[in-house]
Write a structure and sequence with these properties.
single chain; 559 residues; alpha/beta; Protein-Tyrosine Phosphatase, Chain A; FAD/NAD(P)-binding domain; 3 domains; seven-stranded mixed β-sheet; 29 strands; 23% strand; Prot-tyrosine_phosphatase-like
């Protein structure tokens, strides 16, 4: 038998025989649903045979036959009723299991988010993208989808989304563009490190979304539920459908707070904080100011994460404050990193190590945070040293700064756009999707091997805009992205190590060495971060002014 578990209550399978029923009972199944009409195949046992075997084994059975390719709304309602009435766990079957998985998807549509349904069925080996519109419509066949159509649809209005919309408008003012995003507020997330260090006010890192959407760009204030790239369509929550000629995907990534046991329940209290959330960054500064002794832990999860330097930036700024106030000698600092290096580009490590030694911080590599007990002030780490068996260690803390695990958004991971790891699958130079020629991606959601930073999106947006316009004109891609990313590492108040690099760790300095030597801590880099980058973000990047971000011409390989 090929039994595929959907959830704790239901599994589905291809056709079973009467002899299989005894084995199902032994495995704990208490009911069977048959979704295959009798007589569909010459070697197919009748439902009566299956029902008789079920009763002989103390199980219940229900017959909800569905003709292949003709799953009706009434079938889904009957399946839902059967699941509610029958004792579980239940096995449902048809010829291949697909009809049973489809019925479950439609039955669950009102109680579960579409991405969760698609993920569970996909994990069981069934692709439900063909009925995504019906699932989004509460399990019912849509009668009026109210389709809207745009020349370019942009999914996500974060740094990448607004920047690429502005860059497109700068190149082709009359282009019909729609941006899809449900958020009311747009955040300057690079500023949250400075909020946590007492330098910026949180309110200065937020603006209303409506004030930033470029003039002439339609804002669809909704969440995306699924993609139908073969039909050039995006399905929104509530089953509205938007179609497009070309699409740009840039919804950012998902902060998976729930992946760390006990973390959500204690965030914002018990000394547990994170600069990765707008509302928590001020609490970081509050904790830094009131901590006088004990252990301060700063964590970094497995890669990829957005702004890989941010976890240690929080450590440096906190330690600098404790040093300036004479408290550092009483505080035991630990940087618990799931990886094995302090920073991925070796050229910047010597300067960072000077500060690690200055602050007497312990570097605990291969330490991945898996649980937090806030009231008890203990953090549990899974330690995976390369030459040792995995083990768990507990550490007590006075202050715990957490960088959460991060993944692609659920609706991306279960979509046809994703690679095996869940990220949008693009060519790393042109940022065009590898399978769909009219789709591009930028920002944190794509799988190009670059650092996930706002500085990277600043360079990517003009590249994508240039290539989309080239495609509209019917010519080959014009621009390439070289993997540029920047991480201003705030090693102390007033000094920054300005890490700038591209694919493969190649250094990509924006300034002459006499002005800013990125491999050393400088005051000039601090002034750039504190005074210049915020207005560059708000007034240039999000307005289509490509200061120091002009697209690089695409290099065509010689034949």
């Amino acid at each position: 038998m090929d039994i595929r578990k959907i959830d704790d209550r239901l599994s589905v399978s291809p056709q079973i025989t009467a002899d299989d029923v005894t084995a199902l009972a032994a495995e704990g199944y208490r009911a069977i649903i048959c979704n295959r009409p009798d007589g569909e195949g010459s070697d197919q046992p009748s439902f009566e045979e299956i029902e008789r075997a079920a009763h002989e084994n103390g199980m219940e059975a229900r017959y909800i036959p569905v003709t292949s390719g003709m799953v009706e709304d009434g079938h889904a309602r009957a399946f839902d009723a059967a699941l509610r009435e029958l004792p579980g766990p239940v096995l449902a079957y048809c010829r291949s299991g697909t009809r049973s998985a489809t019925l479950w998807s439609l039955a669950e549509a009102e109680d579960r988010p579409l991405p969760e349904i698609l993920a569970k069925t996909r994990a069981a080996g069934y692709d439900m993208s063909g009925v995504a519109r019906r699932i989004a419509n509460g399990g019912k066949t849509p009668t009026d989808t109210g389709d809207a159509h745009y020349k370019v649809v942009i999914v996500g209005a974060g740094a990448g989304g607004i920047a690429v919309a502005a860059s497109l408008k700068a190149r082709k003012p009359g282009l019909e563009i729609a941006v899809i995003d449900p958020a009311d507020i747009h955040y300057y997330q690079p500023g949250w490190t400075m909020v946590g260090g007492g330098i910026f006010e949180a309110s200065n890192t937020a603006k209303t979304m409506g004030s930033l959407i470029p003039r002439g760009v339609h804002w669809i204030k909704a969440a995306v539920a699924a993609f139908e790239p073969d039909g050039n369509a995006v399905i929104l929550d509530g089953c509205r459908v938007v179609t497009y000629d070309r699409m740009i995907v840039c919804p950012g990534l998902k902060l998976d707070w729930h992946k760390v046991e006990g973390l959500v329940e204690t965030l914002g209290r018990n000394g547990v904080t994170s600069n990765y959330r707008y509302d928590l960054a001020p609490y970081t500064w509050e904790l830094v100011q009131r901590t006088t002794s004990g252990t301060a832990i700063f964590t970094q999860p497995p890669m990829p994460i957005k702004c890989a330097g941010a976890p240690q930036k929080a450590m440096y700024l906190s330690a600098d404050h404790w040093n300036r106030t004479g408290r550092l000698k009483n505080i035991d600092i630990h940087f618990c990193n799931a990886g094995g290096v302090l920073f991925g580009v070796k050229d910047y490590v010597p300067a960072l190590m000077e500060y690690v030694r200055k602050y007497d911080a312990s570097l605990d590599f291969f330490h991945n945070l898996v649980a937090v007990d806030g009231p008890a002030k203990t953090a549990t780490f899974e330690v995976t040293d390369p030459d040792a068996d995995p083990r768990r260690v507990e550490m007590e803390f006075e202050m715990l700064h957490v960088c959460p695990p991060q993944t692609a958004p659920d609706f991306i991971r279960v979509s046809p756009l994703a690679d095996a790891a869940g990220w949008v699958d693009v060519d790393q130079s042109t940022l065009r999707h590898k399978s769909y020629d009219n789709i591009w991606a930028l920002g944190d959601v794509m799988n190009a091997p670059n650092a996930k930073t706002a500085a990277a999106a600043r360079k990517q947006a003009p590249t994508v805009a240039e290539n989309v316009i080239a495609d509209i004109r019917g010519v080959a891609p014009k621009a390439q992205y070289d993997g540029y990313g920047s991480c201003p590492l705030t090693v102390e108040r007033g000094k920054i190590v300005l890490a700038e690099f591209g694919y493969g760790g190649t250094l990509k300095p924006s300034f002459p060495k006499w002005l800013i030597d990125g491999t050393k801590p400088t005051r000039a880099a601090w002034l750039l971060k504190e005074r210049m980058l915020p207005p560059i973000y708000w007034q240039a990047m999000l307005r289509g002014r490509e200061w120091m971000a002009k697209p690089e011409p695409l290099k065509v390989a010689a034949e």
